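Take a minute with the sequence and fold tokens given here and flag any structure token that looks odd. Thanks in advance.
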Amino acid sequence: MNNDPLIFEFAIAKDKPSSFNAERDNTCPFCDVDNLTDIYQINGPMIWLANRFPTLKDTKQTVLIESDDHDGDVSNYSKEYNRELMKFALKCFNKMRQSGKFESVLWYKNFGPKSNGSLSHPHMQIVGLDKEDGYKYIHANNFTGIKVFETNNMDVNFATHPIQGFQEININLLKNSGLNSWADWIQNGVRYILEEMYGGRCDSYNLFFYTNEDGICCKIIPRFYAPPYFVGYKLSECNDNQTLRREANRLLNFVQKS
């Protein structure tokens, strides 16, 4: 399999504002709603628009501003707002996918200083790749694992074949009738990672969304510094099954108490 990297255009990136780099302009462009341009769609405070700093060659980079609250996040939205956000983002994602203009379309979210994001204002990214299959390294078993919760329209598990490693939570939507529950489990999974999983020591996470033949998976990955086996060899690491079962029970208890 060829390793065809996405080309990062540094000349564009060097002028990006940053919430995590004191040497950069830290003025938040997403708070300045009146001066946003190239807007595709608006749903209340949610705004889908073109990325002003398209740093990847041969792509169409878009941003979905989640909220007008600079300190908002999936973890602190109301349940109703988070459900509406996930439905709106899914519609935007599907619109790009169904346009037929791209080889593949990626949908993800960065949160926190270790997530590789540049702005703290809550947002997601939906990126069309002109030439690349962004899912070529992804396998069906990446979405399976130790069961946390299951219904006829949704499955939640801790991955036993993670993409990067250790403890990845898969929220698998199997039928559209489960959309509200899917959004709720994403929210609860994020809260669990930030508040409980590592005793509150985790301050960053990513959400990645993948379509498959059964539906769509949201994979929640707590972010620390990437392990050397993954950085150097693309080898993921996974916690032992006993640890994953313990985490599965803790997550279920956390959700049932919330």
